[in-house]
Amino acid sequence: MLLTRAAEMMYFCWNYFQAMWYGSLWNMVPQLLGPTESTVMVFCAVIGTGTVFFIDVKLSEMVHEVKRLIKKEKPHLINFDSSLLRLYLAREDDAWMDSRDEATMEALKTEPVPERIAALIQQELILFQYKCLNEIACFSSNFQQSNHNIHVLVQLPDEPEKVTQHKSKHCFSLTTIMIF
């Protein structure tokens, strides 16, 4: 404990020295004020691809912010509006799904969606866009992180190509409008 505190103090002093050297104490304000609300790692799995990744999120954030962070983390996979994502709790029998389970990972990669995942999606409540994570029982103050748990299942729209085409067909750029 004492060693950890000493390391934190050395880190703070080094940052203070750098801030003074570069003439900017403004970057030090968060450290001077102390920690704010902590973030947690939420592991997500994309249904149909089996892609597993994590995002750092505050438990006080709303689900629509989680969708935005997911899109930001995987822009090559999600090339449409983040509000079209459907998020589900990844819980089977009151336990998080395990990314080390080969059957689970194969089920997440399979198209069409296997019965196991389809039943889970129908069974578990969708994460509504304007609900805060800490309002969901599974993400309350006793939320336990693990590198092997999958917390959120991400379902892409059925036909993202049509979503992208619709968007590009009906959206005009400023240069297009100015030409007319």
UniProtKB/TrEMBL annotation:
> Which stretches are transmembrane?
none
Identify the InterPro entries for this entry. Answer: Crinkler_N
Give the location in the cell.
Host cell; Secreted
Per the record, GO CC terms? extracellular region; host cell
What keywords appear on the UniProt entry? Secreted
**Highest taxon, organism lineage:** Eukaryota
Tell me the ranges covered by the Crinkler effector protein N-terminal domain, including all copies.
42-155
Q: One Pfam family for this entry, by name? A: Crinkler
What this protein is called in its record is Crinkler effector protein N-terminal domain-containing protein
Q: What is the lineage of its organism?
A: Eukaryota, Sar, Stramenopiles, Oomycota, Peronosporomycetes
